[in-house]
Amino acid sequence: MSDPVAAGAAVRLKGLHKTFGDVHAVRGVDLTVAPGEVLALLGPNAAGKTTTMDMLLGLTTPDQGEITLFGRTPRRATAEGLVGAMLQSGGLLDELTAREIVQVMAAQYPRSLKVDDALGRAGVDTYARARYGGLSGGQKQRVRFAAALVCDPDLLVLDEPTVAMDVGARAGFWAAMREYTTGGRTVVFATHYLAEAQDFADRVVLMRRGRVIADGSVAEICAKVDGRTIGAVVPGTPADELRALPGVASAVLRGDRAELHCADSDTALRALLARAPAAHDISVTAMSLEDAFIALTADEPVNTEEGV
Ligand SMILES: Nc1ncnc2c1ncn2[C@@H]1O[C@H](COP(=O)(O)OP(=O)(O)OP(=O)(O)O)[C@@H](O)[C@H]1O
Protein backbone atom coordinates (compact mmCIF):
# COMPACT_ATOMS: atom_id res chain seq x y z
CA MET A 1 0.00 0.00 0.00
CA SER A 2 1.85 3.09 -1.17
CA ASP A 3 -0.90 5.64 -0.48
CA PRO A 4 -0.36 6.79 3.13
CA VAL A 5 -4.08 7.53 3.61
CA ALA A 6 -5.00 4.07 2.38
CA ALA A 7 -2.22 2.51 4.50
CA GLY A 8 -3.66 3.99 7.70
CA ALA A 9 -7.27 3.62 6.62
CA ALA A 10 -10.03 2.31 8.84
CA VAL A 11 -11.68 0.78 5.77
CA ARG A 12 -10.19 0.12 2.38
CA LEU A 13 -12.26 -1.45 -0.39
CA LYS A 14 -10.56 -1.95 -3.72
CA GLY A 15 -12.21 -3.11 -6.94
CA LEU A 16 -15.05 -4.98 -5.22
CA HIS A 17 -17.44 -7.01 -7.35
CA LYS A 18 -20.25 -9.32 -6.29
CA THR A 19 -22.73 -11.19 -8.44
CA PHE A 20 -25.75 -13.21 -7.33
CA GLY A 21 -26.83 -15.31 -10.31
CA ASP A 22 -27.76 -12.79 -13.02
CA VAL A 23 -27.63 -9.83 -10.65
CA HIS A 24 -24.37 -7.89 -10.62
CA ALA A 25 -25.02 -6.35 -7.21
CA VAL A 26 -21.66 -4.57 -6.72
CA ARG A 27 -19.68 -3.47 -9.77
CA GLY A 28 -16.24 -2.20 -8.92
CA VAL A 29 -16.48 -0.30 -5.64
CA ASP A 30 -13.35 1.52 -4.44
CA LEU A 31 -13.61 3.25 -1.11
CA THR A 32 -11.16 4.41 1.55
CA VAL A 33 -12.49 5.58 4.90
CA ALA A 34 -10.13 7.44 7.21
CA PRO A 35 -10.15 6.80 10.97
CA GLY A 36 -12.61 9.17 12.63
CA GLU A 37 -14.76 9.61 9.55
CA VAL A 38 -18.53 9.21 9.74
CA LEU A 39 -19.68 8.01 6.34
CA ALA A 40 -23.26 7.63 5.15
CA LEU A 41 -23.91 5.16 2.37
CA LEU A 42 -26.97 6.23 0.40
CA GLY A 43 -28.74 4.88 -2.65
CA PRO A 44 -32.06 3.63 -3.89
CA ASN A 45 -33.29 0.10 -3.13
CA ALA A 46 -31.03 -2.58 -4.62
CA ALA A 47 -28.13 -0.13 -5.16
CA GLY A 48 -25.72 -2.58 -3.48
CA LYS A 49 -25.33 -0.93 -0.05
CA THR A 50 -26.06 -4.01 2.07
CA THR A 51 -23.95 -6.26 -0.16
CA THR A 52 -21.04 -3.82 0.17
CA MET A 53 -21.42 -3.73 3.96
CA ASP A 54 -21.70 -7.51 4.18
CA MET A 55 -18.46 -7.85 2.20
CA LEU A 56 -16.80 -5.21 4.34
CA LEU A 57 -17.65 -7.28 7.42
CA GLY A 58 -16.50 -10.53 5.86
CA LEU A 59 -20.04 -11.97 5.86
CA THR A 60 -20.09 -12.27 2.06
CA THR A 61 -17.05 -13.08 -0.05
CA PRO A 62 -16.45 -10.77 -3.01
CA ASP A 63 -16.02 -12.30 -6.48
CA GLN A 64 -13.18 -9.84 -7.02
CA GLY A 65 -11.44 -7.17 -5.01
CA GLU A 66 -9.68 -6.55 -1.73
CA ILE A 67 -10.91 -5.50 1.70
CA THR A 68 -8.89 -4.38 4.68
CA LEU A 69 -10.07 -2.94 7.99
CA PHE A 70 -7.27 -1.21 9.91
CA GLY A 71 -4.86 -3.10 7.64
CA ARG A 72 -6.32 -6.48 8.61
CA THR A 73 -8.71 -8.91 6.97
CA PRO A 74 -12.35 -8.38 8.03
CA ARG A 75 -12.30 -11.67 9.93
CA ARG A 76 -9.19 -10.73 11.89
CA ALA A 77 -10.41 -7.18 12.61
CA THR A 78 -13.73 -8.57 13.88
CA ALA A 79 -12.06 -11.23 16.05
CA GLU A 80 -9.89 -8.53 17.62
CA GLY A 81 -13.01 -6.57 18.56
CA LEU A 82 -12.16 -3.64 16.31
CA VAL A 83 -15.52 -3.77 14.53
CA GLY A 84 -19.10 -3.62 15.79
CA ALA A 85 -22.02 -4.17 13.44
CA MET A 86 -25.75 -3.61 13.44
CA LEU A 87 -27.26 -5.33 10.43
CA GLN A 88 -30.67 -5.87 8.90
CA SER A 89 -30.19 -9.62 8.76
CA GLY A 90 -29.30 -12.07 11.51
CA GLY A 91 -31.76 -12.65 14.32
CA LEU A 92 -30.95 -12.66 18.02
CA LEU A 93 -32.27 -15.35 20.32
CA ASP A 94 -35.85 -14.54 21.34
CA GLU A 95 -35.61 -16.46 24.64
CA LEU A 96 -32.70 -14.45 26.01
CA THR A 97 -33.13 -11.14 27.78
CA ALA A 98 -31.58 -8.00 26.28
CA ARG A 99 -28.96 -8.08 29.03
CA GLU A 100 -28.07 -11.74 28.40
CA ILE A 101 -27.64 -11.05 24.68
CA VAL A 102 -25.22 -8.23 25.35
CA GLN A 103 -23.41 -10.37 27.95
CA VAL A 104 -22.94 -13.17 25.39
CA MET A 105 -21.54 -10.68 22.88
CA ALA A 106 -19.19 -9.14 25.45
CA ALA A 107 -17.77 -12.56 26.36
CA GLN A 108 -16.53 -13.06 22.79
CA TYR A 109 -14.12 -10.15 22.75
CA PRO A 110 -10.71 -9.52 24.28
CA ARG A 111 -11.77 -6.09 25.55
CA SER A 112 -15.29 -4.90 26.10
CA LEU A 113 -17.39 -2.28 27.81
CA LYS A 114 -19.22 -3.14 30.99
CA VAL A 115 -22.52 -4.72 29.92
CA ASP A 116 -24.55 -2.13 31.86
CA ASP A 117 -22.57 0.65 30.22
CA ALA A 118 -23.42 -0.64 26.72
CA LEU A 119 -27.08 -1.09 27.71
CA GLY A 120 -27.16 2.44 29.14
CA ARG A 121 -25.56 4.03 26.09
CA ALA A 122 -28.06 2.30 23.82
CA GLY A 123 -30.98 3.37 26.05
CA VAL A 124 -31.93 -0.20 26.89
CA ASP A 125 -31.68 0.06 30.72
CA THR A 126 -35.42 0.11 31.38
CA TYR A 127 -36.14 -3.16 29.57
CA ALA A 128 -32.77 -4.91 29.92
CA ARG A 129 -34.40 -7.83 31.78
CA ALA A 130 -37.21 -8.31 29.25
CA ARG A 131 -37.11 -11.20 26.79
CA TYR A 132 -35.84 -10.06 23.39
CA GLY A 133 -38.71 -11.85 21.60
CA GLY A 134 -41.29 -9.74 23.43
CA LEU A 135 -39.78 -6.36 22.54
CA SER A 136 -41.07 -3.92 19.91
CA GLY A 137 -39.20 -3.40 16.63
CA GLY A 138 -37.60 -0.16 17.81
CA GLN A 139 -36.62 -1.69 21.18
CA LYS A 140 -35.00 -4.63 19.38
CA GLN A 141 -33.00 -2.21 17.27
CA ARG A 142 -31.64 -0.61 20.43
CA VAL A 143 -30.63 -4.01 21.83
CA ARG A 144 -28.79 -4.64 18.54
CA PHE A 145 -27.08 -1.30 19.03
CA ALA A 146 -25.98 -2.26 22.56
CA ALA A 147 -24.68 -5.58 21.19
CA ALA A 148 -22.70 -3.71 18.51
CA LEU A 149 -21.25 -1.27 21.05
CA VAL A 150 -20.22 -3.69 23.76
CA CYS A 151 -16.89 -4.68 22.17
CA ASP A 152 -15.99 -0.96 22.31
CA PRO A 153 -15.18 -1.03 18.59
CA ASP A 154 -13.05 1.43 16.63
CA LEU A 155 -15.37 0.98 13.63
CA LEU A 156 -19.15 0.71 13.73
CA VAL A 157 -20.97 -0.57 10.65
CA LEU A 158 -24.71 0.10 10.73
CA ASP A 159 -27.23 -0.94 8.09
CA GLU A 160 -30.36 1.20 8.39
CA PRO A 161 -29.89 1.49 12.16
CA THR A 162 -32.96 3.57 12.98
CA VAL A 163 -35.55 1.58 11.04
CA ALA A 164 -38.58 1.01 13.31
CA MET A 165 -37.41 3.55 15.90
CA ASP A 166 -39.84 6.28 16.89
CA VAL A 167 -38.81 9.94 16.82
CA GLY A 168 -37.59 9.97 20.43
CA ALA A 169 -35.65 6.71 20.05
CA ARG A 170 -34.05 7.99 16.86
CA ALA A 171 -32.92 11.20 18.56
CA GLY A 172 -31.53 9.16 21.46
CA PHE A 173 -29.72 6.86 19.06
CA TRP A 174 -27.96 9.74 17.27
CA ALA A 175 -27.08 11.38 20.59
CA ALA A 176 -25.40 8.11 21.63
CA MET A 177 -23.63 7.97 18.28
CA ARG A 178 -22.31 11.51 18.72
CA GLU A 179 -20.87 10.52 22.08
CA TYR A 180 -19.30 7.43 20.53
CA THR A 181 -17.65 9.35 17.66
CA THR A 182 -16.32 12.16 19.85
CA GLY A 183 -13.28 10.01 20.58
CA GLY A 184 -12.41 9.87 16.85
CA ARG A 185 -14.00 6.53 16.06
CA THR A 186 -15.19 5.56 12.61
CA VAL A 187 -18.78 4.91 11.49
CA VAL A 188 -20.11 3.61 8.19
CA PHE A 189 -23.92 3.61 8.05
CA ALA A 190 -26.50 3.02 5.35
CA THR A 191 -29.79 4.86 5.56
CA HIS A 192 -32.83 5.89 3.57
CA TYR A 193 -33.39 8.85 5.94
CA LEU A 194 -31.49 11.57 4.11
CA ALA A 195 -31.88 13.97 7.04
CA GLU A 196 -29.80 11.57 9.15
CA ALA A 197 -27.01 11.67 6.57
CA GLN A 198 -27.31 15.45 6.36
CA ASP A 199 -27.17 15.92 10.14
CA PHE A 200 -24.68 13.27 11.09
CA ALA A 201 -22.29 12.30 8.28
CA ASP A 202 -18.96 13.98 7.46
CA ARG A 203 -19.07 12.28 4.11
CA VAL A 204 -21.76 10.85 1.87
CA VAL A 205 -21.24 8.07 -0.66
CA LEU A 206 -24.09 7.65 -3.11
CA MET A 207 -24.45 4.26 -4.78
CA ARG A 208 -26.55 3.33 -7.76
CA ARG A 209 -26.69 0.01 -9.55
CA GLY A 210 -23.66 -1.36 -7.75
CA ARG A 211 -21.41 1.64 -8.34
CA VAL A 212 -20.37 4.72 -6.40
CA ILE A 213 -21.80 7.68 -8.34
CA ALA A 214 -21.00 10.50 -5.91
CA ASP A 215 -18.64 10.83 -2.95
CA GLY A 216 -18.11 13.94 -0.84
CA SER A 217 -19.51 16.16 1.88
CA VAL A 218 -23.24 16.94 1.81
CA ALA A 219 -22.38 20.36 0.31
CA GLU A 220 -20.25 18.74 -2.39
CA ILE A 221 -22.96 16.22 -3.29
CA CYS A 222 -25.57 19.01 -3.46
CA ALA A 223 -23.25 21.08 -5.68
CA LYS A 224 -23.07 18.20 -8.20
CA VAL A 225 -26.60 19.05 -9.21
CA ASP A 226 -26.91 22.37 -10.95
CA GLY A 227 -29.65 24.71 -9.95
CA ARG A 228 -31.47 26.41 -7.16
CA THR A 229 -35.03 26.88 -6.06
CA ILE A 230 -36.70 30.29 -6.03
CA GLY A 231 -39.70 30.67 -3.74
CA ALA A 232 -41.93 33.75 -4.07
CA VAL A 233 -45.48 34.98 -3.59
CA VAL A 234 -46.58 35.99 -7.10
CA PRO A 235 -50.20 37.28 -7.05
CA GLY A 236 -52.09 36.59 -10.27
CA THR A 237 -49.28 34.97 -12.24
CA PRO A 238 -50.31 31.74 -14.03
CA ALA A 239 -48.11 28.65 -13.62
CA ASP A 240 -47.56 28.20 -17.35
CA GLU A 241 -46.11 31.73 -17.58
CA LEU A 242 -43.78 30.97 -14.68
CA ARG A 243 -42.66 27.75 -16.36
CA ALA A 244 -41.90 29.68 -19.57
CA LEU A 245 -39.55 32.16 -17.85
CA PRO A 246 -35.91 31.91 -18.98
CA GLY A 247 -33.76 29.93 -16.54
CA VAL A 248 -36.74 28.05 -15.06
CA ALA A 249 -36.76 24.25 -15.43
CA SER A 250 -40.06 23.59 -13.64
CA ALA A 251 -42.57 25.48 -11.52
CA VAL A 252 -45.14 24.58 -8.89
CA LEU A 253 -47.85 27.04 -7.82
CA ARG A 254 -49.77 26.60 -4.56
CA GLY A 255 -52.24 29.45 -4.21
CA ASP A 256 -50.11 32.54 -4.84
CA ARG A 257 -46.89 30.88 -3.66
CA ALA A 258 -44.60 29.70 -6.45
CA GLU A 259 -41.64 27.35 -6.28
CA LEU A 260 -39.39 27.62 -9.32
CA HIS A 261 -36.68 25.01 -9.92
CA CYS A 262 -34.04 26.82 -11.90
CA ALA A 263 -31.07 25.84 -13.98
CA ASP A 264 -29.98 29.50 -13.87
CA SER A 265 -31.48 31.24 -10.86
CA ASP A 266 -29.98 34.70 -11.63
CA THR A 267 -31.62 34.82 -15.06
CA ALA A 268 -34.85 33.37 -13.67
CA LEU A 269 -35.03 35.90 -10.84
CA ARG A 270 -34.56 38.86 -13.20
CA ALA A 271 -37.23 37.48 -15.51
CA LEU A 272 -39.59 36.83 -12.60
CA LEU A 273 -39.31 40.40 -11.31
CA ALA A 274 -39.86 41.77 -14.84
CA ARG A 275 -42.97 39.61 -15.34
CA ALA A 276 -44.33 39.94 -11.78
CA PRO A 277 -43.03 43.18 -10.22
CA ALA A 278 -45.32 42.65 -7.21
CA ALA A 279 -43.54 39.38 -6.33
CA HIS A 280 -42.55 39.33 -2.65
CA ASP A 281 -41.28 37.05 0.16
CA ILE A 282 -38.60 35.87 -2.25
CA SER A 283 -36.08 33.21 -1.28
CA VAL A 284 -33.33 31.51 -3.28
CA THR A 285 -32.11 28.19 -1.89
CA ALA A 286 -29.50 25.66 -2.96
CA MET A 287 -30.45 22.09 -3.77
CA SER A 288 -31.09 19.94 -0.73
CA LEU A 289 -29.52 16.51 -0.34
CA GLU A 290 -32.92 15.06 -1.24
CA ASP A 291 -33.06 17.13 -4.47
CA ALA A 292 -29.53 15.96 -5.34
CA PHE A 293 -30.36 12.33 -4.50
CA ILE A 294 -33.44 12.42 -6.75
CA ALA A 295 -31.56 14.12 -9.59
CA LEU A 296 -28.54 11.80 -9.44
CA THR A 297 -30.63 8.61 -9.27
CA ALA A 298 -33.39 9.97 -11.53
CA ASP A 299 -33.76 7.04 -13.91
CA GLU A 300 -33.79 4.56 -11.06
CA PRO A 301 -37.06 2.69 -10.65
CA VAL A 302 -38.39 3.34 -7.14
CA ASN A 303 -38.79 0.43 -4.70
CA THR A 304 -37.79 -2.37 -7.04
CA GLU A 305 -35.48 -5.21 -6.19
CA GLU A 306 -33.92 -5.24 -9.65
CA GLY A 307 -30.19 -4.77 -9.63
CA VAL A 308 -29.44 -4.94 -13.31
N1 LIG B 1 -28.24 -13.23 -1.21
C1 LIG B 1 -28.68 -12.70 -2.36
N2 LIG B 1 -29.14 -13.49 -3.34
C2 LIG B 1 -29.58 -12.97 -4.51
N3 LIG B 1 -29.61 -11.66 -4.78
C3 LIG B 1 -29.17 -10.82 -3.83
C4 LIG B 1 -28.69 -11.28 -2.57
N4 LIG B 1 -28.31 -10.22 -1.83
C5 LIG B 1 -28.56 -9.12 -2.58
N5 LIG B 1 -29.07 -9.49 -3.79
C6 LIG B 1 -29.43 -8.58 -4.88
O1 LIG B 1 -28.36 -7.68 -5.05
C7 LIG B 1 -28.85 -6.36 -5.34
C8 LIG B 1 -28.31 -5.37 -4.32
O2 LIG B 1 -28.93 -5.65 -3.08
P1 LIG B 1 -28.54 -4.89 -1.75
O3 LIG B 1 -29.34 -5.53 -0.64
O4 LIG B 1 -27.07 -4.86 -1.60
O5 LIG B 1 -29.07 -3.42 -2.05
P2 LIG B 1 -29.34 -2.20 -1.05
O6 LIG B 1 -28.76 -1.00 -1.69
O7 LIG B 1 -28.87 -2.55 0.32
O8 LIG B 1 -30.92 -2.13 -1.09
P3 LIG B 1 -32.01 -1.68 0.04
O9 LIG B 1 -31.92 -0.20 0.14
O10 LIG B 1 -33.29 -2.13 -0.58
O11 LIG B 1 -31.68 -2.40 1.32
C9 LIG B 1 -30.37 -6.49 -5.36
O12 LIG B 1 -30.81 -6.64 -6.67
C10 LIG B 1 -30.63 -7.73 -4.54
O13 LIG B 1 -31.84 -8.36 -4.95
UniProtKB/TrEMBL annotation:
Pfam (any one): ABC_tran
KW Cytoplasm (keyword) present: no
Membrane topology: Peripheral membrane protein
A GO CC term assigned to this protein in UniProt: plasma membrane
Signal peptide: none
Residue stretches spanning the membrane: none
Any one of the GO BP annotations: response to antibiotic
Keyword Nucleotide-binding included in the entry's annotation: yes
Domain ABC transporter: 11-234
CDD domains: ABC_DR_subfamily_A
InterPro entries xrefs: AAA+_ATPase, ABC_transporter-like_ATP-bd, ABC_transporter-like_CS, ABC_transporter_ATP-binding, P-loop_NTPase
Record-given protein name: ABC transporter ATP-binding protein
GO terms assigned for molecular function: ATP binding; ATP hydrolysis activity
UniProt subcellular location: Cell membrane
